[in-house]
Target: DUF3791 domain-containing protein
Amino acid sequence: MQTRLIRLASEEWHLPVEQIIHLFKEADVLGYIEKCYGIFHCEGDEAVLEDITEFLQGKGIEISA
Model:
């Protein structure tokens, strides 16, 4: 799931994969995905990416696509 979301974020946000990986590590998005996996595995990747975007915004990180 993490790999799919990294690629999707890269495409949606028009950022290189390396930058997405750095952002996800810095904001502990991968830990968030692991913690919420029980809910996320029932949703589509687009919905999960929207949740991650809100998670990042809650941390003061704005993503503009």
About this structure: The radius of gyration is 11 Å.
